[in-house]
Write a structure and sequence with these properties.
Elements: E1 4-8, H1 15-26, E2 29-32, H2 33-46, H3 54-60, E3 66-71, E4 74-79, E5 82-83, H4 91-94, H5 97-101, H6 104-117, E6 123-127, H7 130-134, E7 140-145, H8 148-161, H9 168-184, E8 197-200, H10 206-226
Parallel strand pairs: 1-6, 1-7, 2-6, 7-8
Antiparallel strand pairs: 3-4, 4-5
Helix pairs in contact: 1-10, 2-6, 8-9
């Protein structure tokens, strides 16, 4: 039986970086579920399919093939056999991904893909509804919180380092809007699972967050072995 770690949290909370580091330290398969929804958003942007055109999106879902591959020690994201690892992280995708992710038909396509990935391997999966919808019986559930201002600072820094021309104010506005869309959507709204352990990373370094969650995972894993 596989061991599943679910890490949910808002954009900019550090869950992507934390998940990668924990996967390496604990020999877990890292699955970035957000990348899947970003692929759907990118496909729709490239094909001029508005998030309000549900019928057109539904008709195109079978044309969207998403693969997560590990190459040279890094996870690469492929959309219809094309590496889009960098393209799905642009401000353009950032600004619309929550709209596409809120669509029931899109989630109905992606959620089974996510569950299938956790059937055999010991995994650590990060996203927005992993502990509430995708793996409600996950062995470990972490809810990684962080203030909106700090999240905006982190995302702004990442964008600048990538050479993306954007202001802090634009990033902050985008994160606020995205948080509103994700928490208020009707399908799988972004909420903390009742049994998830809250970790607030606002005033913590990445190393501190990793160490705290690592202890939780090891304790849970040891208990499962005893049982």
């Amino acid at each position: 039986m596989s061991f599943v770690v679910a890490i949910d949290g808002p954009a900019g909370s550090g869950k992507g970086t934390v998940t990668k580091l924990l996967a390496e330290k604990l020999n877990l398969v890292n699955i970035d579920t957000g990348a899947m929804y970003r692929c759907v958003a990118l496909y729709c942007l490239d094909n001029n399919i508005e998030s309000t055109n549900i019928a057109n999106i539904k008709n195109n879902l079978d044309n969207i093939n998403i693969e997560l591959k590990r190459e040279n020690g890094k996870q690469q994201v492929y959309l219809n056999n094309k590496n889009v690892s960098e393209k799905i992280r642009t401000p353009e995708v950032d600004s619309v991904v929550a709209k596409y992710a809120a669509i029931k038909e899109v989630r109905d396509k992606v959620t089974p893909m996510q569950r299938k990935m956790g059937e055999k391997d010991d995994i650590i999966m990060e996203g927005r509804d992993i502990g509430t919808v995708v793996f409600p019986n996950a062995d470990v559930k972490i809810f990684l919180e962080c203030s909106i201002e700090e999240r905006a600072k982190r995302r702004y820094k990442q964008d600048i380092e990538k050479g993306i021309n954007v202001t802090y104010e634009e990033v902050l506005e985008s994160i606020i809007e995205r948080h509103k869309l994700e928490t208020q959507r009707e399908v799988a709204p972004f909420v903390k699972a009742d049994d998830a352990i809250l970790v607030d990373s606002t005033n913590m370094s990445i190393e501190e967050v990793v160490n705290e969650i690592e202890k939780i995972i090891i304790e849970k894993k040891n208990k499962k072995r005893i049982i």
